[in-house]
Specification:
By secondary structure, the protein is of the alpha/beta class. It is built from 9 helices and 7 strands. It has one domain: Rossmann fold (3-Layer(aba) Sandwich), CATH 3.40.50. A 7-stranded parallel β-sheet has the order 3-2-1-4-5-6-7, with helices on both faces. Helix 1 crosses helix 7.
């Protein structure tokens, strides 16, 4: 059965691959992003594209309404928009921290709030929130990024309980190491915000590790996450969480059961600091 799917952050990586895969399965896909020029190639695959800034409620409202006007309903919302800003808590400005939270948490919440009424009215729907291994464990200098992803975890869990009586499923996708530009962007942010600080030397090593890791062939292709999203979007009874990608399950397990001081030491050793 064909479904109407709205994907945020559809211009690259996981969002882009998910749009292609869902469209290939015959679903009506709307991919939204701030950089609409990067969405252009998706049109060749029958995917509709929309401008969306999740930090702007008017933009979010216009995006959702455009889909409702065209289709009459939205079956699946994939909240994929987000980014990672790494840096010591002391060095990351509160302005940047708020920006991270606005995009990764409040932007996600805005999209949920906008689609819930129509999903409730039709008595069905699925909200898929892209969380992260970073919402299950903590890495050196990940501070505010981890705060945002732990928040996505908690928000998703609460939403799932609230919306179940209305026939709306809430699913968490928790990727591990995925072959995208995320690690390079996070590494650049880390180097930039620690220049001239007491953290500069160790942060440079951690940034080098991020760049090296995200240039590795060992990372999981974004299509693997797209497959998990597609399964969740099309399942009659989707799982509560889908962990996918390098380290997604093992690292979450270790963070849960290792003594925290052991975990801390391991993370510092990984960065050779």
């Amino acid at each position: 059965m064909s479904k109407v799917v709205l994907i945020t952050g559809g211009s690259s990586g996981i969002g882009y691959e998910s749009a292609l895969m869902l469209a290939s399965k015959g679903h009506r896909v709307y991919a939204a992003a701030r950089r609409t020029d990067k969405l252009e190639p998706l049109k060749e695959h029958g995917i509709q594209t929309l401008h969306l800034d999740v930090n702007d409620e008017a933009s979010a409202r216009q995006c959702v309404q455009a889909v409702l006007d065209a289709e009459g309903h939205i079956d699946v919302l994939v909240n994929n928009a987000g980014y990672g800003y790494f840096g010591p808590v002391e060095c990351v400005s509160l302005e940047e921290a708020r920006s991270q939270m606005e995009t990764n948490v409040f932007g996600l919440a805005t999209m949920c709030r906008l689609v819930i009424p129509s999903m409730r009215e039709q008595g069905s729907g699925c909200i898929i929130n892209i969380s992260s291994l970073a919402g299950q464990s903590c890495f050196l200098y990940g501070g505010w990024y981890h705060v945002s992803k732990y928040s996505v975890e908690a928000l998703s869990d609460c939403l799932r309980m609230e919306l179940k009586p209305f026939g709306i499923d809430v699913v968490k996708i928790e990727p591990g190491g995925i072959r995208t530009q995320w690690g390079h962007i996070a590494g650049d942010h880390l180097s930039e915000c620690t220049k001239g600080s007491v953290y500069e030397q160790s942060a440079a090593k951690e940034a080098e590790l991020l760049h090296y890791g995200y240039s590795s062939n060992f990372l999981t292709d974004p299509s693997a996450v797209a497959k998990a999203i597609t399964r969740a979007a099309t399942s009659k009874r989707p799982r509560v969480r889908y962990r996918v990608g390098l380290g997604a399950s093992s690292m979450a397990f270790l963070h849960t059961f290792l003594p925290l001081r052991w975990w801390d030491s391991a993370m510092r050793l990984m960065g050779k600091v």
